[in-house]
Design brief:
By secondary structure, the protein is an alpha/beta fold. Helices cover 38% and strands 16% of the residues. A seven-stranded mixed β-sheet has the order 1-3-2-4-5-6-7, with helices on both faces. α1 (27-37) packs across α5 (151-165) and α1 (27-37) packs across α10 (237-254). Pfam families: Abhydrolase_6.
Length: 255
């Protein structure tokens, strides 16, 4: 497959935290959301890569499937983090890869957080509904992504999402998307501290499939958040901070 050079940024020092963004953006969206969550939390080295074909990570022609992306991310974690156990957070498609990384390398993952996870077998995805704002600001993508459509949310979208969209290699994502489903892993479910957070109004992936994960992971907490859509990390930062703080406490207790 050849070595893919993954671009990333990092902040802080201590226990590594690998944060994977969703499709169609780059590290800047995850960084903007999760740096707010980790503000004031000491002892964490937060690592935000650009997934292949997005941001400044090139997806060569040899990258042809989700399995190839997964291998790239596992190699990246080995190279940048080394042998230390790390926390793993994914939003949307990033959560799909995070699940697979934890399944493949459970001893390396100290805790798993899945935010608005994209999953095979999505079902009961609700219609889009705006809960705040006129519904008349921003572009079509903003209006279909956010359910809280305030000027503050539009500013976040235009600052952290729009610039990333311009860097997406659509040809590469379409090529990978033809084999988007990861090869099923037959190993036991990841048994470390897990948290699943879904938006009740998520019209991209819904919340129903995410609720199934509570039966899959033996040590999972599940929260379905009202008045939040797929942009939950932007729309409900204080609640997300509280949920992930509780998760970090469980991680510390188990390590």
């Amino acid at each position: 497959m050849g070595q893919v050079v993954v671009h990333y940024v990092e902040h802080g020092s201590g226990r590594p935290v690998l944060v994977l963004h969703g499709a169609g953006v780059d590290h800047r969206e995850a960084e903007a959301c999760f740096e707010l969550v980790f503000e004031g939390v000491a002892g964490l080295r937060r690592i935000y890569p650009d997934l292949p074909g997005m941001g400044r990570t090139i997806a060569p022609d040899t990258l042809r499937s989700a399995d190839d992306v997964l291998d790239t991310l596992l190699d990246f974690a080995d190279e940048v983090i080394g042998g230390a156990a790390y926390l793993l957070i994914g939003h949307s498609a990033g959560a799909y890869y995070a699940q697979a990384m934890a399944a493949r390398r459970p001893a390396k993952v100290a805790g798993l957080a899945l935010i608005c996870p994209f999953l095979p077998g999505l079902r009961d995805v609700p219609a889009h509904r705006v809960v705040a704002g006129s519904g008349e600001i921003g572009d079509d993508v903003f209006r279909s992504y956010f359910v809280i459509q305030t000027p503050a949310m539009l500013e976040r979208y235009e600052r952290y999402v729009t610039p990333a969209a311009a860097l997406v290699d659509q040809t590469a994502l379409e090529r990978i998307g033809e084999r988007w489903e990861l090869t099923p892993d037959r190993t036991p479910a990841y048994a470390g501290p897990t948290v699943v957070v879904a938006g009740r109004l998520d019209s991209t992936v819904g919340y129903a499939a995410a609720t199934d994960l509570i039966d899959h992971y033996p040590h999972a907490s599940l929260s379905v958040v009202d008045d939040a859509g797929h942009a939950l990390p932007h729309e409900q930062p204080e609640l997300l901070r509280a949920l992930l703080t509780e998760w970090l406490t469980r991680v510390e207790r188990s390590s």
